[in-house]
């Protein structure tokens, strides 16, 4: 039943997308050709020619939508994800259309076709397709909340995984998941969690499937019961009911894992680290080199003035070098402007700076408060020890301490440390929670993108360099 409804929804979605694309094309033609906003040079081709191009164009775009998974069930897909898929599809469509246009222009066939119209079509198709998806999603969510288009599910295994799944379904009624019950061998029949009861043992699964209309089975076994998995899968496959497996590895994997296929052997990576992709790493490194050179030129005069003031304020070197732990746990010397009087190495390692610390010079107080003392790290970035954006590096002795005290602390060393990062723009600077800082660092590592780096850079500039927790 639910499969038939899903097929009908997919057919409806394709028809709606085709109608929206046709409307967007006609709208683009109206503004670019029929009643042009910019009248000069809008082309001389007939309406019949323009609309004949639309005939192959729309199926091509629908094919791109299918390739980029826009026709997957929308129950649990976020609108943000759907928008980015629409943007990707239409961007690829624009590039292909423009390529074909310019390839055939020399033949004279598309010589007068309006490139401006392609631009209008690109903007309108993204806007109207996104609006269509948004309103369709709202309608389906409302229907599911009211009991229509429900997906009836049995859970196999009464465990923390099943509890988590039930919580999510209760929190998101618009997903339309109706949990019929849980089968489990260890829990007593009648035991329940948030109104979802254990309705029998695992041996009863076959009878339950044959006597009830169930659309899906979710295997939510605890890790200790995985030896039962082959028999459960066999029972599910005999019933013909779609089955999904929700693994009990939350204590090991806390975010989106990445699956690989090694010649038929499925492999799940424990953690998704986008910067392990060579192309991502190369792109970020190029940006770091360019950004560090710009920073050195831009802040060069200020660094010269600060260097002179440090030399006048107290005897000793201008640059303070301190060993920090970087990419792949490798130590490196991080540069800062010296903000304290010269100390012995063993004294410097004892503790962090505290409020009113007598070791800090008068110019040191200013440059620490305004983060100017960090400017020499542009040279660390240029060398490759650091990145412009990333988790802040810590001293070796504190890394040894934190890795024993804070779970997953060492994961931050899977990427280059940064001059600023997601933790810093979220308020974790100076003497603040190490645990909160690590949570931000891990989120950044697992969700890295070029747009996120740009966002952090602008937030750093927007919030300023003054650090109230720097002493």
TrEMBL record:
Q: Name one GO molecular function term.
A: phosphotransferase activity, for other substituted phosphate groups
Q: Which domain of life is it from?
A: Bacteria
Which Pfam families has this protein been placed in? Bac_transf (PF02397), CoA_binding_3 (PF13727)
Read off the InterPro entries from this record. Bact_transf, EPS_sugar_tfrase, Undecaprenyl-P_gluc_Ptfrase
Is Magnesium there in the keyword field? Answer: no
Q: Which compartments is it annotated to reside in?
A: Membrane
The membrane topology term of the UniProt record is:
Multi-pass membrane protein
What keywords were assigned to this record?
Membrane, Transferase, Transmembrane, Transmembrane helix
Domain named Bacterial sugar transferase is located at 284-464
Transmembrane residue ranges: 12-33, 49-71, 83-104, 116-136, 289-310
Could you name the Gene Ontology cellular component terms for this entry? membrane
Q: Gene3D superfamilies per the record?
A: NAD(P)-binding Rossmann-like Domain
Q: What family is this?
A: Belongs to the bacterial sugar transferase family.
Classification via PANTHER family: COLANIC BIOSYNTHESIS UDP-GLUCOSE LIPID CARRIER TRANSFERASE, UNDECAPRENYL-PHOSPHATE N-ACETYLGALACTOSAMINYL 1-PHOSPHATE TRANSFERASE-RELATED
Q: What is this protein called?
A: Undecaprenyl-phosphate glucose phosphotransferase
Organism from which the protein derives? Oribacterium asaccharolyticum ACB7
Q: What is the lineage of its organism?
A: Bacteria, Bacillati, Bacillota, Clostridia, Lachnospirales
